[in-house]
Each structure stands twice: as C-alpha cells, then as structure tokens.
Amino acid sequence: MKVVLTGQSLTLAQVKDVCYGFATVEIEEASMRKVEESRYSVEEIVSRKKTIYGITTGFGKFSDVMIAETDVNDLQLNLIRSHACGVGDPFPEIVSRAMVLLRLNALLKGFSGVRVEIIKQLQTLLNERIHPVVPQQGSLGASGDLAPLSHLALVLIGEGQVHFEGGIYEANLVLKEKGIQPISLKAKEGLALINGTQAMTAQGVINWIESMRLFYQSEMIAAMTFEGLEGIIDAFHPAIHEARGYVQQTEVAARMCELLKESKLITNQGEKRVQDAYSLRCIPQVHGATLQALDYVKEKLEIEMNAATDNPLIFNGGQMVISGGNFHGQPIAFAMDFMKIAMAELANISERRIERLVNPGLNDLPPFLSPQPGLQSGAMIMQYCAASLVSENKTLAHPASVDSIPSSANQEDHVSMGTIASRHAYMIIQNVRRVLAIECICALQAVQYRGIEKMAPVTLAFYKEVRKIVPSIDSDRVYSKDIEEMAAWLKKRDIR
Questions:
Q1: What range does the domain containing 358 cover?
Q2: CA 274 → CA 70, 167, 231, 234, 450, distances in Å?
Q3: Which of 137, 179, 296, 357 could form an S-S bond across to 442 if both were Cys, CB 3.0 to 4.6 Å?
Q4: Active site residues
C-alpha cells in the first residue's frame, strides 16, 4: 500500500492509511519540481540581500532586525532551538506521525522555499517509522504551532528525541543506526518547518478518525440498549425523519432500523407504552446532530491538510513574497471546539441510557442489573463512573477558541488556541469511549436477562463478539478492568 503526496489532494482516508496502516509515502514529481523552483527563489533573495521577513530578518517583534548574509543559516538553527520549548506529556505517537505527514504535504505545495533535502528527510522519517517526540503543551495556535513543530524539526537536524520500535531514544542515535544524515538548515527552512498548523490539525485528524469509529459503535451499542429496554421502533420510521429534512438524522434512523431488523425484543407504539424517553426515542436526532458536526469538521480538516500555512509565502517564481497570516489556527480551533461539544453530547445521551438500564424505577429489569440485588451492587457504581466522565467532559468542552493572549511584545496580539481545543477534544473522545464501554456492559446484561435468542441477528452477533471481552455479571467483581478492556477493544475495532 502506498500514498502519493502532491500537496493538493491528501484525504482523511489516505491519512488513515499512512498513520494506522503504515502505507509507504511517495512524492509526485511535479510537486518536487515546485519545491525546487521555490527554493531557487529563496536563494535569489539571499544573494540579492532583499529584505524579506524570516529570511533576511529576525522573527516576531524582531522582524525589523536585519540579518547578515553570513548569518542566515544560523538564524534558522537558532530559531528551532529557541522555539523548542514545549512541555508536558508528548502527543501520542500516531499524532506525531500525522504531524510529519501533514508538514511534508504542506511543503510540497511549493510556496515555502525549502530544499528537496528537507522533503526527502521528512519522507524518510515516515517510511522508516521514526516519529519525533513532541510535547503537547506550549502552542498558542497562531504564528503556527511553533513549539510543537520545533520539536519535530529538531529531529531533522539530529537533535531531540524520537519514538522508534516501541521506545523513546535520542534522535541522533536512531538516525545513525538507520544511516540517515542529519540536515543543516539553510535560509528560511527553519521558519518553513514550524510556521504552520500541523500540530492542531494532526491531532484533529486523529480525533476525527477515532470519533467516526466511536460514532458507529455508539449506534450498535444504542441498538443493544434499545433491545434491553424493549424500545418502541416506531420512532425510527423514515417518515418522521424525512419530515424534518436532516440527512444525517434520516441516515441514523435507517441504520438503527437495520441493526434492529428481526428483533423480538423491540416493541410498537402502544404495545407496552405509548412513548419512550428521549434518550431512546431521540437517538436519530441527537446522534444525527453529532454526525452533522463531524461532517463539518471533516470538511475543515481536509482543507487544512492541503493548505499552505507558513509565512512568508513565495509566489510567481519569487516575484511575489508576501507576509500574511495563514498560520492562524482559527478555522481548526472552531472545528475542534465544535467537535468537543458534539462528542460530549454523544456521551451525555449514552449516560442517560445507562441510567435507564440500571434504575429499577425506570425499567422492569433487576435493580442495577445485579444478580443478587442488595447483597451485590451490580452496575450501580458504573453509572456513577459514567456520570463523572460526562461531567468532566462538560468542563473540557468549554471553547478554547474564545480565548486569546498577546505574544511577542504585542506583535502577535490575537491567537487561536486551536491546539488546546484539539488536545481537549482528544481527551473528551477518550472519556466518551469509556462511557460507551459502560453502556455496552450494561446493555449486554440487560439483553441477557431478556433472552439473547430474541435479539436481532446483527446485535446478537455483536453480543457474542463482545462477550469474549467482558463476561456476564454473575457476581460483583472489579468492574474497572471490564470498562478499560471494553474501551481498549472499542478503540481498535471498526464497526464498519
């Protein structure tokens, strides 16, 4: 499997192939020619001693400080070292891999002025599965993800640390082992490597991939809960959803009907009750709205993945070199904040279904699904755990994009905080997965009480598969292990 990069056409499906499937990365020849032409323009600027930001001047508030021709290479090295001040735990390795891929793709657009050597070094890191260790905290999300991308750039010059073959090592040792020569940065290359939105976008891409996997899993789990509570299938009739007009809502209702087809545990309107609670009846409306948000996020990510986000940008063979603000992460900041809210709500409605599964006042199942109510607590505290997770999500869902703080002596006086939004979205997704794991464990027990032979063929197959991960509750045990094992299984498994 291989993915050919052009700088123009990278898709989320291809990112998934590279990051999860370790597809080999190749470079389109036409894109490489654009890189060479752009590099020639930079060398002309240096030789003619033109005043161009970041090439022959300092950075940020130092943009008025002229740099001698003899110092332009040192300027780039100093930039990387001084800006590599990220702190905290590193991004997950898969996010680091995505970061390298997206930075490579952006440079292939031919607006950044780097040498072919930079392109090939990034390509080598991907194909050799050498991934920079990048601290998560320290980016304002404007002027690009300066601190995170500086840690990425360190690896190209043989400094910093890398993930490699399951461990973390000094970059120079791994490069030497693989016979890879560290690069000496030339004019503009340091700036081109770090002035971009690839940290927030890389995390955002992984967020989206994991969110879509969780989204379809949530439908399957909700369908099993629906059976456990003998839900009223009429609420999913296509006429209701077509009358409203949201495509995603209609699609969710149709999938729920398909999942529950031939089930003997579902009911009809008036058979046992007239209406279900909203957490059952409104699954298409709520889940569908989450899917709408994820579709919006996908659109923004695929634009940003193929965007030139550094500064300055070089056009028309060097005839135009323009300083602008494409490094500003506001579009991704908004998208990640939207994702946070949408995914948090998927957990909110799941937790309400958990409550309906365990509360003896809301169903005719054994109280808290306990095998011996009173002596054994059953799933009582699992609902507490879910409630705690959804409450934490409400705090994390506070929008990061509404905040800003000036930097670089007020030269950079409005920033996006998009990387914070992206990181918090990832944290929410992990919490959502655990809430869904709890719902799944409870739904397994509920349908077991009802009689699994009455389940729909699709949900029964899922039940049998999941029972290999979490056995039936026949006595109280340490449920933490069950929740974490179920969440780990969901993280790896594609429903579709």
A1: 204-492
A2: 82, 58, 10, 10, 20
A3: 357
A4: 53
